[in-house]
Write a structure and sequence with these properties.
alpha/beta; pyruvate-formate lyase- activating enzyme; two-stranded antiparallel sheet; single chain
């Protein structure tokens, strides 16, 4: 995951871009495994995952608060505090939730289709943001359908309520974080939205075994160990069990290649 062009740490730009290229190659390889005999829905998912469109972060909101185990070593919080120390105006309040009206129009300036990660530095469905503010972000997404969008949340109840009345958008991918089986309930909220959007669960960081997920409502499962200097360990069998479950239930599994000897999990699941 990244941050906006004006907020980049230039010292790590080359490294980050290299990570994005490697990740895209892995994702394309995984998605291509099921590229034959696809129905229209599967073909759309394959198109999204193998797109050559540039990855772009779009952060109309920044800041968040912790709600579950996956939040303990939040990269967005650490990055926000770093940018605050650097004097970046958008992060003058650190990691407090803030809505940035001026950023809503950013996607209108993109001349070519892009893959956009919405709110990499926040959670769009945080209760600090009003319905009107969230709707303004969603209105932008519907107004510029040429782009592919990914929205990830740990607050599926509000996501469900805000998207239920929205029409179909084949380029909008909505997902929930499921770091262990304790939070598998979040994926239940995807079931009623799957007919209108591409749905996914993000098991990063994977902090415990997941033996089962809802059998309906999930198109894709991303999985990876935790990253960072304070990362918590993952067990190889957690990934194997999850992959087998996904394969048995028609869920596309895209997992980081777990290697206990390496700094596994350095690359973000969604750039």
């Amino acid at each position: 995951m990244g941050i906006g062009r004006k907020e980049k740490n230039t010292a790590t730009t080359d490294h980050t871009q290299g990570e994005k290229r490697v990740f895209s190659q892995e994702l394309n390889t995984e998605a291509s495994r099921s590229c034959y005999c696809m129905n229209p829905r599967q073909a759309n998912i394959h198109r999204i995952l193998t797109s050559a469109a540039k990855w772009t972060p779009w952060n109309p909101t920044t800041g968040c608060t912790k709600v579950s185990d996956a939040c303990v070593n939040c990269y967005a919080e650490a990055t926000s505090l770093f940018l605050q120390r650097r004097g970046i105006a958008a992060y003058s309040q650190g990691f407090l939730p803030i809505f940035h009206d001026a950023r809503i129009s950013d996607i209108a300036s993109y001349r070519h289709p892009r893959r956009i990660f919405v709110d990499a530095m926040s959670d769009l469905f945080h209760d600090h943001f009003t319905d009107a503010q969230i709707d303004s972000v969603l209105d932008g997404i519907y107004a510029h359908r040429q782009h592919i969008y990914f929205i990830l949340t740990k607050r599926p109840e509000r996501m469900h309520s805000m998207l239920t009345s929205r029409p179909q958008h084949q380029n909008l991918c909505i997902g929930v974080t499921v770091e262990s089986e304790t939070y598998a309930w979040r994926a239940e909220y995807l079931r009623q939205l799957q007919d209108k959007f591409v749905t996914f669960v993000n098991c990063e960081p994977l902090l415990g075994p997941i033996s089962a997920l809802p059998r309906d409502g999930i198109d894709i499962c991303f999985a990876a160990p935790e990253a960072g200097p304070h990362r918590r360990p993952s067990a190889p069998e957690w990934f194997t069990t999850l992959e087998h479950y996904c394969n048995a239930n028609n869920i596309l599994y895209i997992g980081h290649r777990f290697d206990i000897r390496s700094d596994a999990g350095k690359r973000p699941i969604i750039p």
